[in-house]
Design brief:
Chain lengths: 348, 508
């Protein structure tokens, strides 16, 4: 897998500079060793589901002998929990479903800087720019549609066309959901705030079907209740694994590469402040971006591996083809403006 | 007639204030968080057009659900206690069952049947179906105690049956009906699972979105405070509606026989809520189970462990909630005044807030005050008590209020101290209502999810968290046994509940 190299080099350099700036430990006298120590166990807050993640953790424990205490929850709740706990958190590592939560925790200064070998394993654009967290898997924004009423050819290739009269009352969206908001931010970065505001208000005027989350949109489309909607790609694969791909009424359409409607979002992990010297925690984060773990995600969750050299799940367009030039995940940090835009349009 | 002493005894007022302080923890937390953002941000959040819509939706849903639950619950209770219905005891039990079904499960089941279901009407009907036992059960209990003879008199004097009911029987069941309605209203205000499924955006959506998409705790706190204000409106409304009325003399009335045609036409009234709230969703889940590819060997030890911890936390939460609710209920049953009003209103607030807010407030509180207990069962059980003690306050207040003051006076003249008289005379007579409160708390605890996820000791699973674990990854096959067991386990207290009488007055 290749990623536009100038971008990654700049980011690497930036990461290096930041590392030099931030990672220097507070002045420590000789009595205090700063060598990472291991006690053979650590605590993980996992915003990803137990059914998906636990087998990977078992595999990790088998290989390393390190015991992982896992607290499962959804990413939003665990993010709020970590913000509330602050430095008192019992967690050493946070595994997050989306980059938004990682960005928020990073902004609150709750993450320690990861070592260079971990952050540099993942190409820039799919990980943090300051080394506070590392991208683990990628998920593409897609259009999900009712295969019994529509064909892929009938669907537009760019997100702009989905707010035209033709789709009035037919498109399902989840405006209060983090991944939708990331997409709107991408739209702002790529086309400018005015164009994004125009798109959002066109959407609001087009009688969208408002849902609370991606999986509900998928279920509704699959049952024929709604014709089409905007979701992340892997929900479809999860549902297909349950009922069999041939039984899926819902189908996916990837939009034109480079379009804001086809951006790739990431899940990722970070080490919490105070655990920078926990060798077990570090080993786990390193494991997440190893070939073994990346391969596991490809096979079990149908997500994009972010580690160069690991092939994407079969039947998916390549990650390279979905790379959006001129868009960096760190650009998606500015949620406040996006939310104001959505609030003005009456969507949130 | 109750002659209320002017002032509550100090020990009672003190205990009630302590209990109310526990209930006030979420409120303090919300104020702290909202204040961090500053007034400008708070106003900005509240001024969003969508927020107004959220609030209007919350209030509209709560009002509509409460109204239908009140009418339907009273009607069901009346049919089951005043008409000779075959298997009336079984019917009462069936009418308690919707309590055992978590609202999100009911919503999910209905979506399997009618995928396009969404908006106000289905949210309203489903919420009514799962909350109506809060009215049915206390009203049925009160009706079994209330006199129906006056009603016969009223009818011979030329009143229609409805009019006769409203004039004579209604006053005696009104306190029970109103207390139940308050629980329905608070449930509707705080519900997130069902409205999310039914795509009806209420304030709880806004609160969840503020946590999950914006990671903005101040904004979430602002919206939650708006929800608190709505809850206060509801609680105040209930207080106004609950003006003490002279209670009809307690006398049980034998159910009267009606014709077969009449019985058949009454049946739908009794059956509608269990049908909508229990039968349809569960059958739909079953059908989904048969389709699923993930039907796999059930991990029995793990399942049993979840059952064990679910029952364990539910029993502990019920005990603690009753203990906290007791002084508040005792105070509100006999005394008036500003302090009583405040203490009682604050006691109800926890139930109006979504679990995530109460959960986070106790993260904040326990880390600040008892860090050693953080992520222990103690804090989790305490959170349940804060969330659900309102379910005990109302019934216990009614139960304690029904104890004839003259009995207490007699005990006092026989040389008992006020405390002794309360403990040896009042408490035993009010015990059934304490039991009802405890059962309601236990049921709610078993179904609770968001606060459980936040506060449980790492690794502890309840049936609700296990169910959640599986539904988030579409593993309906693997989820079904947990869903079935959750409803089954929660049905046990619900069944017991349908048999408890609200107060001891029948025995008097």
């Amino acid at each position: 897998m290749r990623v536009s190299s100038p971008l990654s080099i700049t980011a690497l350099a930036a990461t290096g500079l930041l590392l030099a700036g931030c990672a220097a430990p507070a002045p420590s006298d000789d009595a205090m060793p700063v060598v990472p120590t291991a006690d053979g166990q650590f605590t993980l807050y996992s915003g990803r589901d137990e059914e998906l993640v636990q087998p990977l953790i078992d595999q990790f424990t088998e290989e390393t002998g390190i015991v992982v205490d896992v607290r499962y929850g959804n990413t939003a709740e665990l993010g709020a929990l970590l913000l509330e706990e602050g430095n008192a958190t019992p967690a050493n590592v946070f595994l997050s479903q989306d980059a938004g939560a990682l960005g928020a925790l990073s902004q609150a200064g709750l993450f320690t800087t990861l070592p260079d070998d971990v952050t540099s394993a993942i190409p820039a654009g799919f990980t943090s720019t300051d080394g506070s967290w590392v991208g683990v898997t990628g998920r593409a924004r897609v259009v999900v549609y009712d295969g019994e009423r529509l064909t892929a050819d009938e669907l537009p290739d760019t997100i702009d066309e989905y707010v035209s009269d033709e789709w009035n009352g037919r498109l399902a969206v989840a405006p209060t959901n983090a991944s939708f908001q990331s997409f709107v931010t991408a739209l702002r970065v790529l086309k400018g705030d005015d164009a994004a505001a125009e798109w959002v208000s066109a959407l609001a005027d087009n009688n969208p079907q408002i849902f609370e989350g991606n999986s509900q949109i998928l279920t509704a489309v699959d049952e024929g209740a709604v014709e089409l909607g905007l979701v992340n790609h892997y929900y479809w694969y999860g549902a297909a694994a349950e009922v069999g791909a041939e039984n899926m009424r819902a189908q996916l359409k990837f939009l034109t590469p480079g379009d804001a409607g086809s951006i790739v979002n990431v899940s990722g992990a970070g080490i919490l402040n105070g655990s920078e010297l926990d060798a077990d925690a570090l080993e786990f984060v390193r494991y997440l971006v190893s070939e073994a773990a990346q391969q596991y995600f490809v096979e079990q969750t149908f997500e994009y591996p972010l580690l160069p050299g690991v092939a994407a799940p079969e039947g998916l367009p390549s990650l390279e083809s979905l790379i959006t030039p001129g868009l960096d995940l760190s650009d998606l940090d500015d949620l406040a403006t996006t939310q104001r835009l959505l609030a003005d349009a009456g969507l949130i | 007639m109750t002659i209320a002493p002017a002032r509550a005894p100090l020990w009672l007022a003190g205990a009630a204030i302590v209990a109310a302080s526990a209930a006030a923890i979420p409120l303090v937390y919300l104020v702290v968080r909202a204040a961090e953002a500053g007034l400008v941000a708070v106003i900005e959040t509240l001024a969003r057009p969508r927020v107004l819509e959220y609030a209007a939706n919350s209030l509209g849903l709560a009002a509509a659900t409460t109204a239908t639950a009140l009418v339907l619950g009273t009607a069901v209770a009346f049919v089951l206690t005043r008409v000779r219905v075959p298997f009336s005891r079984t019917w009462l039990l069936i009418s308690a069952l919707p309590l055992a079904v978590p609202s999100y499960l009911a919503g999910y089941g209905w979506l399997v049947v009618i995928p396009g279901l969404n908006g106000f009407v289905p949210s309203w009907l489903l919420l009514t179906a799962v909350t109506v036992p809060y009215v049915t059960l206390p009203v049925a209990a009160a009706l079994r105690g209330a006199s129906g003879d006056l009603e016969g008199v009223a009818r011979t004097l030329g009143r229609g049956p409805l009019r006769a009911f409203l004039v004579t029987t209604w006053p005696s069941v009104r306190p029970a009906a109103i207390a139940g309605s308050l629980l329905v209203a608070l449930y509707a205000l705080s519900d997130f699972g069902l409205v999310a499924m039914m795509r009806f955006p209420t304030l709880t959506w806004g609160i969840n979105a503020a946590y999950s998409a914006s990671f903005d705790r101040a904004q979430a706190a602002t919206l939650a405070l708006l929800l608190v204000v709505l809850a206060l409106v509801v609680v105040t409304g209930e207080r106004a509606a609950r003006r003490q009325l002279p209670r009809a003399a307690a006398r049980a009335v034998a159910p009267r026989s009606v014709g077969r045609g009449m019985l058949v036409s009454l049946l739908p009234v009794v059956a509608v809520a269990p049908l909508i709230g229990v039968a349809v969703p569960l059958l739909a889940l079953l059908s989904r189970l048969l389709d699923a590819a993930t039907l796999r060997a059930i991990d029995v030890p793990r399942l049993l462990e979840a059952v064990g911890s679910t029952i364990g936390v539910a029993v502990a939460a019920a005990l603690l909630a009753v203990l906290l609710a007791l002084p508040i209920a005792a105070l509100a049953a006999r005394y008036r005044g500003r302090l009583v009003t405040i203490v009682e209103s604050v006691g109800y607030l926890g139930h109006a807030l979504p679990g995530i807010v109460v959960g986070l407030s106790l993260v904040f509180f326990s880390l600040a005050v008892v860090p050693a207990l953080y992520q222990s069962l103690a804090v989790l059980v305490f959170a349940y008590a804060v969330l659900f003690m309102p379910k005990a306050i109302g019934t216990m207040r009614a139960g304690l209020g029904d104890v004839p003051p003259r009995l207490v006076s007699v005990a006092r003249t026989l040389g008992m101290s006020p405390w002794q008289a309360w403990w040896r005379v009042t408490m035993p007579l009010a015990l059934p209502s304490v039991g009802i409160g405890a059962l309601l708390v236990a049921i709610a605890t078993m179904k609770e999810l968001p606060a459980t996820l936040l506060l449980r000791p790492t690794g502890t699973q309840t049936l609700a968290t296990e169910l959640w674990n599986r539904t988030v990854v579409f593993e309906f096959g693997a989820a079904a046994p947990y869903a079935a067991l959750l409803v089954l386990v929660a049905a046990v207290p619900a069944v017991i509940l349908s048999g408890v009488r609200s107060s001891a007055k029948e025995e008097l």
